[in-house]
Write a structure and sequence with these properties.
- The chain has eleven helices and 18 strands.
- It is of the alpha+beta class.
- The strands form five sheets. Strands 1-2-6-3-7-17 form a six-stranded mixed beta sheet, sandwiched between helices. A four-stranded antiparallel beta sheet has the order 11-13-9-14, covered by helices on one side.
- It starts with 9 loop residues before the first helix and ends in a 6-residue tail after the last helix.
């Protein structure tokens, strides 16, 4: 008879050191449509208690802010630890607990943002005292952004501010949930909005009007045609799933009543591109189709018709070579191995465009994010703590590239 007894060490059963910091962050409802300032104010106070200066960059409304802080000599190339503070909505999801109560259950933390990505931010903040214990040979920068979930919008202002104050590019680790595996690539994303304007009329006289909804639908049809072409002809990058660029129409608004031909319509769509495919080239093809095919038909009936386009977000892909020094370095520090390429977007591409060597690596699983009862395991939190501890130790004497 097998009498094997499985035991757990006290360290495995005790809560992770950073758990209370993470729970405090999860309790802030920072859904992207709302302000993140309450969380940012708490982080400011946390850093100020250690005498660490910080910089804020706000959105146009002043209701949201990025926070950037440096520990060490900012004139030297250093290590950016990047995380976003916003989370996706919980509307319509069947949660078994309050999404913002930060519930602990069976070696897991449950709450919106627990995986994506307040655990990483909390681990970093909890490690601040360790960063101050001894002088750092390479500075550590804390970069916490707003509006990542709606197109990686906020980080651009923070990066421009970093450039304005002369922060030297070094390396950037974006702590999105990857189960501590080092991810070297993701697709780029260009999000657009089409404003279609025609001419309204009674629906009984529809042939004498220009139905903005009809022509927005024609744009959707063209996007579908372009998508089929990419799926059939590429370019292909087999590391990605799917291995080609994707074109997607997601939101359409038009009309006030069935018996009124709609004058205006808005359509939101996106391009997610693999290396070798330029989203701006794809958009230019769509725009040429509108200019040559749709607008002449519209203006033959109503000369005032138009199709205007608005860029909602423009986030470059991350393309770090697997042989780049940063990859092996972060693999060693994180201890989770390599994660290849991922389907989701991140802020890493923007740091790379600004001259930083960048990868994605953080605790938790993206499979557990964005859904009811989002969670992270204590095991992953501990792995993240060990990772950041090794980053801090190396920053005391390590090279930055």
């Amino acid at each position: 008879m097998d009498t094997t007894i499985t035991t757990h060490s006290e360290a495995e059963l005790s809560p992770p050191r950073s758990l209370e910091t993470i729970r405090r962050l999860v309790r802030f409802d920072t859904t992207s449509r709302d302000s993140n300032l309450a969380l940012i104010d708490w982080v400011r106070e946390h850093l100020a208690s250690f005498g660490i200066p910080y910089r804020l960059t706000h959105d146009d409304t002043g209701a949201k802010a990025n926070l950037f802080a440096t520990i060490g000599d900012p004139a030297k190339p250093g290590i950016v630890l990047s995380g976003h503070t916003d989370v996706v909505p919980v509307d319509g999801q069947a949660w078994s607990v309050d999404p913002f109560a930060a519930v602990v259950d069976r070696q897991r933390l449950i709450g919106r943002g627990a995986a994506d990505m307040k655990s990483f931010v909390g681990i970093v903040l909890d490690a601040v005292p360790a960063m101050l214990e001894a002088p750092l040979a390479a500075p550590i920068h804390l970069a916490f952004s707003y509006d990542e979930e709606v197109g990686c919008i906020g980080v651009g202002r923070m990066i421009r501010d970093m450039q304005d104050i002369g922060i030297a590019p070094g390396i950037c680790i974006v702590g999105e949930p990857t189960n501590m595996k080092v991810v070297t690539g993701h697709k780029g994303k260009l999000a657009m909005r089409a404003h279609v304007v025609g001419r309204e009329a009674h629906s009984a006289l529809a042939p004498y009007a220009v139905n903005a909804l009809d022509y927005a639908a024609e744009i959707v049809v063209e996007l579908r045609r372009m998508q089929r072409e990419r799926a059939e002809r590429g370019p292909f990058q087999r590391e990605y799933d799917p291995p080609y660029s994707t074109l997607h129409a997601g939101v359409l608004h038009a009309g006030t009543a069935l018996n009124i031909v709609p004058r205006e319509c808005t359509l939101d769509f996106e391009f997610r591109t693999v290396p070798g495919d330029d989203p701006h080239d794809l958009f230019a093809c769509l725009q040429r189709h509108c200019d040559s095919q749709l607008l002449p038909q519209m203006r033959a009936v109503a000369s005032e018709s138009r199709i205007d386009f608005e860029t909602r977000s423009d986030n470059p892909g991350l393309h770090t070579d697997e042989s780049a020094p940063i990859v092996e370095r972060v693999v060693r520090l994180a201890g989770g191995g390599r994660g290849g390429k991922v389907a989701f977007a991140s802020e890493a591409g923007q740091f790379q465009r600004a001259g930083f060597a960048a990868v994605i690596c953080g605790p938790g699983s993206i499979a557990d994010a964005h859904k009811p009862d989002e969670f992270i395991t204590f095991e992953q939190i501990r792995a993240g703590e060990a990772f950041i501890a090794r980053v801090v130790e190396e920053a005391r004497c390590a090279q930055t590239r």
